Amino acid sequence: MTEEELARVEDWMRGTVAGYEGPLAAEKFAVGQSNPTYLLRAASGTYVLRRQPPGVLLKSAHAVDREFRVQKALADTAVPVPRMLALCEDEAVLGVKFYIMGHVSGRNIVDPSLPDEVPQTRAALMAEMARVLSAIHDTDLRACGLEDFGAPGNYYARQLARWSKQYHASATEEQAGMDRLIGWLEANLPEDDGQRTLVHGDYRIDNMLFSETGTDCLAVLDWELSTVGHPYVDLAGVIMQWQLPPGAEGRGLAGVDREALGLPSDQKFIEMYCDNRGLKRPEGFGYYVAFSFFRMAAILQGVKKRALDGNAASPEKALKLGVYVPRFAELGWEARDRHG
Predict the structure, then answer these.
(1) In whole angstroms, how far apart are CA 300 and each of 37, 210, 279, 314?
(2) What is the pLDDT of residue 60?
(3) Residue 53 phi/psi, 5° resolution?
(4) Domains in the chain, please, with CATH?
(5) Helices 285-309 and 315-322 meet at what angle, rounded to 10?
(6) Is 299 exposed, middle or buried (0-12, 13-18, 19+ CB in 10 A)?
(7) Which residues have a Cβ under 8 Å from the Cβ of 81 and sit 6 or more positions away?
(8) What would the pLDDT profile of 25-56 be if each residue is shown by its tens digit?
(9) Which of 162, 174, 167 shows the shortest CA–CA distance to 302?
(10) N or C, which end of the chain is more exposed by having fewer CB within 10 Å?
């Protein structure tokens, strides 16, 4: 953020954010490929600014206004979120939409194998992850004013159409594996079972902040993909992530001895979630995991396209992520029958 941009943000905050007192300083977080995010320091406290990236944006992508709305609606619920302070839709300030939220000081965990923890703590953190996901899906949409936050009808049919369109709009070369996976997903759409809940859209441990000294979740972050839809998209997203290689890049649990570490198996995590919500274990869960791999591949393709167009927050990292598109398509194909 340039000094001129920071000055405009400060002028806007002075007239919009209650109790704000300058001067203002900004520091960009290393995370946040999609929507650049900054830590703001001022005399009145610390804040977080989350903005759309510059340049031409795909329709419905980078919807920071939706992020702001859903988190504000969840303020008094069992779902932990940061405090929303102000939304700016006046593009004269930064050239894009952005919002300001309170800064939550917590522990961000990148590696789901939790290498620095003991088995008991690992088990407690995973139980908390299942509990918070259940709380998201048990949110009373009417009480929160979120009944219209997603379109009616078959969620997976809509999502498949949306992400197929966005994938093709950002494609930079032919991907036979993606075409094959999209065709299978279209031919095997599950029937609409009537479940309609709030969904996060990118639920994983690195989008959560935990207590510095305990296992309580203090905030769920990155609501860009949130909507009202089918809850299994979040549950399958967790399972999808765990099929990836361990470490800072894959952030998965492939090949990890989970039992020895105190981590739940895929089946156990699904059971924990279902027990929290009073549900039976879902049938045909492989479809949902395969879809999750497809959607993530489409997202990564969009990240790659922004890098090639010069609009990525971190071009080098974005191009590196884009390399994984065919691998995600392959893993999606393999997941069809793996999870029942």
Answers:
(1) 19, 27, 32, 13
(2) 59
(3) -75, 160
(4) 3-102 (3.30.200.20), 107-334 (3.90.1200.10)
(5) 140
(6) buried
(7) 71, 74, 75, 219, 220, 223
(8) 999 987 655 789 999 999 999 999 999 887 65
(9) 167
(10) C
- Regarding predicted confidence, which is higher, 235 or 307? 235
Give the residue among 213, 265, 262, 247 at the shortest CA–CA distance from 105: 213
**pLDDT beyond 60 at 217:** yes
Collapse the DSSP code of 178 into the 3-class scheme (helix H, G, I; strand E, B; otherwise coil) and give the result.
helix
Q: How many CB atoms lie within 10 A of CB 169?
A: 14
Judge contact between 164 and 175, C-beta under 8 A.
no
Integer Cα distance of 4 and 135 in angstroms: 42
Burial of 81 (0-12, 13-18, 19+ CB in 10 A): buried
pLDDT in tens, 310-320: 876 677 776 77
Residues 321, 325: Cα–Cα separation, whole Å: 8
The C-alpha atoms of residue 204 and residue 220 are separated, in whole angstroms, by: 9
Return the closest-CA partner of residue 64 out of 87, 47, 44: 87
Question: What span, in angstroms and rounded, lies between the C-alpha atoms of 57 and 97?
Answer: 12
Please say whether the beta carbons of 204 and 126 come within 8 A.
no
Contact 67, 84 (CB under 8 A): no
Report which secondary-structure segment, H or E, holds 168.
helix 155-170
Closest alpha carbon to 172 in 334, 10, 318: 318
- Output the six-digit token pair for 121: 């703590």
Residue type, 269: F
CB 135 within 8 Å of CB 79: yes
Q: What is the DSSP letter of 205?
A: G
Q: Is residue 90 over pLDDT 90?
A: yes
Residues comprising the chain, all counted: 340
Reference 201, options 227, 179, 219, 220; nearest CA is 227
CA distance 261 to 29: 30
